[in-house]
Amino acid sequence: MAAAARSLAGVEVPVLGSDKVQWIELAVPSSASSALAPQVPSQSVSGAALTPRDAAGCHAVEEGETKTYLIWRFHKDSPNTLEVIEVISCNGFPQTGLRLVFQDALCPSTYLCKNVIRSGSGSENSYSLYGLTVSGVAYLLNLRKSFPYISGSNFPQSDYREFNVVSPAQVTAMAVTSACLATGYQDGVVRCFQFGILDPDAPGFVFELRDDVGIGRLWNFVSRGKAVAAVQDMAICEVCERKLSFVLHADGFLRMWDLASHTKLAGYNTFSHELEGSKPTRLWVSEVDYDANIISLAVLHGQFLVSDIEVIVVYHFGFDAEDNVQVSSKPSIQSIRLEEGKLIDLKFCGGKLWILKGDGSMLYDLSQYDFETEDTSVYGLQEDFVAEQLFQSSEHALDDLLWTDHSVLSSMKDQDANFVSSIFLRRLLQPGIYHTSALRATLLEHKKYISEYEFHSLTLDGLKKEIFAIMEGEGTANNTVATVHFWKSFCTQFLHHWCQYSAPYAVFVDASMDVVGLIRKNSISLFRSLEGIEQLIYGFSDEFHNRRSSWTQDKDIDSELLLEMLRCMSYISHQLGGAASALYYESVVNPVTSSEDILSQLLKIIEYGYSSSMTPLIQQIGIDATWTSQQTAHRSQRKFAVDMLISLNSLCSRATNWAGVLDTIEKFLTYLDLHSTIKTVDSKSIYNVNSVLLIQATSQVARVMFETAFDSLLLLRYLINISAQVNLPQVDKNRIKVKLIPAIQEVIIKWLVIHFMGTVPTTQQSLEDFGSRLSLLNIGTKMVRPWNGKLGSADFTLACLLEFPNSLEGLEVLDSTSLPDLSKLNQLVHNFCSSFSSSFTVVEHTTSNLIIELASLLLHHGQYVASENLFVIMDHYSRSRKHSISTQISDGELSACHHLLGYCLVLSQSTLQGVPKEQKLHESLCSFFRAASGAESPKYLKNLSFQTGFQYPEECESGAIWKLHYYQWAMRLFEQYGASEGACEFALAALEQVDEVLKNSNNALPEYETVRGQLWANVFRFSLDLKHYRDAYCAIISNPDDESRYICLRRFVIVLCENCATKVACDGGLPFVGLLEKVEQELVWKAERSDVFAKPNIYKLLYAFEANQNNWRKAAGYMYRYSIRLKKEANLDGSHQYSSVLQERLTALSSSINALQQVDHAYAWMESQSGNDHTNYQMSPNKRPRIVLSKISSDSNEASGINCAVDIEMLEKEYILTKAQHILSLVSSKFKFSGKQMLVNLVDILIEENMYDMAFTIIVNFWKGTKLQWELERAFVAISQKCCSNRVGPTVIVSNVDTNNHLLGYSEEETYSEGKIIASSNFHKIPGTDHWETLEQYLEKYRKLHRRLPIIVAETFLHTDPQIELPLWLVHMFKGGGKVSWSMTGQEPDPATLFRLYVDYGRLAEATNMLLEYLDLFSSMRTTDLINRKRMTATWFPYMTIERLWYQLEEMRKSCHMVDDCDRLKKMLQEALMKHLQQVQIDSEDAIAAASASKMQS
């Protein structure tokens, strides 16, 4: 229950937004202060006016029917700065204020009034401000209304005056009234300046007030009489249109002066025996009571010698105003002793004295002293409310929360920590608690640096994220106990900063309107009195339980029973602490857990105590502290059980039976409930200071009522649970269950909704919500909302959006320029609460109607999350009554609820991600389908078209047609907010309604056939957005509209390609019946119009697509087309590596070859044409195929655009060429081919790069016959030349390879890395230690194709290096590979050929030795082989070459070169030849003889 520890007469109501004033800073120049040395008086000699302190004040300025409150503030830490705020209560609180910066420190007092300077510019529209610096310079400033100044500039010189009031004595006090500035000095003199009326040089501008004038003054000086004490404080008051000055001197003597006649009216010594040892410090004067002819003065006495207390003494002086004002010298006296704390401010108002004091530790107290009754009433300050809401009101408040939370939320596991955090965040960011400076300072203490600009730019959601980030950084986000301790520390720091930044400065009053307010360091607030049941609740405590409230005396209720019942409720409230209502409130608004579960767990705590599972607590606070807390809780539980039993039995005894107790409770509930009294629907929007105060006060009342009703609910539920112990009859038990509990639950919900509306800040509308933003522009209307631009502000709550009924009693107070007084604010709250529900609907009031209308209003202003919360509250209300929601409200209301709830969920899910987004989408789907199922849905939803935008034709003939329009609207709504899944569901639902319409119609309805096609197209689109490709394709084939179907098909292909989901189209899972050709055409269309390097590759998709259909020729053709485009476009695209392009071409050609190999050999070919041979149709004339024209034509057929047949052999050749280019590109980036390369040149380059396999592969595949032999010879010549380390010059056998005309080199930036070149080169080299082994291997392999290859190699060696020694393996090839030979002739290569080469290249010694070798073999033939030698033409030697050898030896000898060697060779040659010729002659003769003998025999 909201009972306080002490009885309260009223509470503080903060003016929201008063802490966010932006200051216009102006510098006030001074010519007088610059000429004087600043005088800062010491504390010992300074009076009240010069004592440095925080000070503030308020002056009400009336001009006609407009009243303006001018509020000013001094800050002790900035003594030369004065802040001024202009407040008109019928307008919103000003966003800007004026900050005046003086050159010297100011006296902490000032005065503002109507303008008295009539010479400055704009003087008729300004205020006058009087001020005095401690250096003695008085200022009179002309402040223009609304402060149209530029921050950072100087105050206009034409709008201010200054005057030096310094005298030989120091200024100690000052008082100001309109056109008069009075200063008191240390010598006791008072000087008055007619500032603003007369010129300083005019007579009468200044005059003095003294006791000793003329001869008396001289006599006092001669006799050295007692001097007048220094002026301590001063005040000026107007009595009967005459200005009186009251002067308090340091010796306690009080003098009263008439400023008009300059005469002293009276004097009085304020000291008495009771005040002995004290010192008077400050003076206040009340307004004049003309009824009693009394004027009251209050003097503060402090600095007692024996104690540190302060005493306020009030003097009531009578006066006579018949002729001249005569003041009585014997006042009546009342003393008020301040036992604790020091006085901060004091104000008179209507026979009462308002006293503000503080104890120096940021604890403050405001009380009201009634002079007539001498009673003191206490008013609750905002510090107490903030501390209570943040569980800082007592030492054990957070311990109660920790234990309660641990016992109640133990079953929630992962969500309990978030649930606890949501409680604190909701309260921390609640208007009246939330404070920007305090929260930023708290964040900085947690090492979360954030600049002031960044902090002010954060939304409330952004602030929550920052706080959660701190929790995660400290590791307390997932543990409930750690979370509570984090919030304990956080809230303690926040409360400290809140009190620091919101320190009370002064009380301000408007006596004419009985308005009392409080000026804080950076905010303003008003006070309201507690009346009625709120006074009873706040006034009840153990200390005052015997005091009967005046409220109960006028009601038909037994006060004794009521007080006893309140005592029982207070027992429960104290046992559970403030955590119980907080947990229940959060469970209703934020249904992470069931509120019924929370309530059941709380009742278990009341009956059996807290949970016995202490492991989490032990881990956090230690075993000793946990054990101590557990024992304390057990003792408290036992005491509670005994006290409750005693109180309940006493309650029953006083009522004689339980029926009487329940009657009292039922009557009490009627006063807690809302009562509608206003039936009009006319209303208007009001947003000003008064309406803000009303809403804030209403939220305070709603909180008290909610907590009281909740405590009543706990009491009744507890009474049922212990019915056996208290002898509760079954009849009364049933009465509680059936009647009282449902009534209490309805009261709880009503006050909870009011509190929710009054405390939850609005959210700024998202940029995407164009409709709501457009509606807020009010296009076509003259209405301007007074709160425009306030949405999203932390101090602008949901209730500010409400409109006030024109018949609301007290509405004129809201429009008044005066602030509401203490009692009128309560009356406004009562009337506003009464009209809260009835102002929204003209039908019979129900909770559902209230929430529907509130949600509609919030939706209209874009408050979707708040609207959703309202429906969550209504759902809780329905479930709490244990009835189906349909039994509580009508079918139409039910549909309206679901419709609005679904709309809220759709809009709120757009900012979520993951599981929360999916949950809201699912709930919104269910809500819309339920809304459409109601029989009265069309009627009720029609009234909500303005809020949600759902409209439908009036001529809907059937429910199916209405549902069709509804589902289409829902589909578009989900689509608008990016929820494709929901949009798809409603598109399908609309299709069902189309079928229903067509089924029930006897006539053809072509317009619905068109709608069917459109809906299927939407289903396709939404399925595609969700990547449900199979569902999207099914929507395509289901679409009856051919044109729409083909458009969707094209989009389907495009999206599959963009999302890399092309596998769907070729895995055989989609039924292409009837659309196979179209699908293929779309794929071809996409392929030809896409970049050849795009991912995924459409040509590969076409290959897979055709392969899946066993169309191998088409598959091969698409891949070949792909290779052609790569060949054309690669040279023009510098963004891709050439080797990767070639590798891609190899893959494409290989795929084409493999595809054609699957076809019968007779059909293994395909057609190819340069250009776009595959796209013989064009559905989109604006989208042309990508045709890249190369500068070098790749083929004559392609250049001419003539169709040609391409078979496997041609593909293989293309593959080989591409492979060669790819290998070269890997070896070095210098080799980049453009256009068609000559094969000869390509082979030469391959050989040059040691790519022999590829070179010979090209030779063998591209040449036949003699051309093949010629190319082989060229290749082996090149290889042979590489084997020779000493070349004498260019060969004449092979023409030089000129690669400059055919190769393009890369720049240095485009070359490959060195490691890649080496690796690639090694990979393509033939295994072997050097070129000789390589030559031997390839010569052995390819001489079968051309037997002259060894001759070419040997001749190349000898030509390149005449001195080279031919390798042995090559010589063996000429000699037959080790076979026995008796001659030098035979098939090439033969020994005769080698012998001829020796002779041709001057290798005479080798030639001679070789000839001698074979001559010797011829002569040394075995006997068995003689017959072969003697055959006709069986042996042959190259005699012509032998003759050339002999000739060359002769020539060499003649040239005198190697004469001895030549002679030796000739001698050997001659001997061998002679022997050989002789042998030949003999063999010839034997052959002739043998031939003759054979002939004779025959």
Summary keywords:
alpha+beta, five-stranded mixed sheet, 14% strand, elongated
Oligomer: single chain
Strand count, sense and barrel status of the largest sheet are: 8 strands, mixed
Strand content: 5-15%
The DSSP helix count reads: 53
Radius of gyration: 55 Å
Overall average pLDDT: 79
Low-confidence stretches: 33-45, 214-224, 541-551, 770-782, 839-845, 883-887, 1170-1202, 1286-1329
**Helix/strand/pairing category:** alpha+beta
Helix content bin: 40-55%
N- to C-terminal distance = 154 Å
Major beta sheet, strand line-up: 24-25-26-27-1-30-29-28
Shape: elongated
Number of strands: 34
Question: In summary, what is this structure?
Answer:
This protein has 53 helices and 34 strands. By secondary structure, the protein is of the alpha+beta class.
Break the fold down into its secondary structure elements and pairings.
Blueprint (H helix, E strand, L loop, with lengths): L9 E5 L7 E6 L4 H4 L19 E9 L2 E10 L2 E10 L8 E6 L9 E4 L11 E7 L4 E8 L15 E5 L6 E7 L2 E6 L4 E4 L12 E4 L5 H9 L7 E9 L2 E8 L3 E6 L4 E7 L9 E7 L8 E9 L7 E11 L5 E2 L4 E7 L3 E8 L2 E7 L5 E7 L5 E5 L1 H8 L7 H12 L7 H13 L7 H10 L6 H6 L2 H14 L6 H22 L2 E7 L4 E6 L3 E6 L2 H8 L10 H4 L5 H18 L2 H11 L5 H14 L6 H7 L1 H33 L2 H15 L10 E3 L3 H33 L8 H30 L10 H7 L26 E3 L5 H5 L8 H15 L8 H14 L3 H17 L4 H4 L2 H19 L5 H19 L3 H6 L2 H4 L10 H18 L3 H21 L5 H20 L3 H10 L3 H17 L4 H4 L9 H13 L9 H11 L3 H18 L8 H20 L7 E4 L27 H5 L3 E4 H20 L11 H10 L3 H11 L2 H19 L30 H11 L6 H12 ...
Helix pairs in contact: 4-9, 5-9, 6-9, 12-16, 12-18, 13-14, 15-16, 17-19, 18-19, 18-22, 19-24, 23-24, 23-26, 24-26, 26-27, 27-31, 30-31, 31-32, 32-33, 32-34, 33-34, 34-36, 36-37, 37-38, 38-39, 39-41, 41-43, 42-43, 42-44, 43-44, 44-46, 44-47, 47-49, 49-50, 50-52, 50-53, 52-53
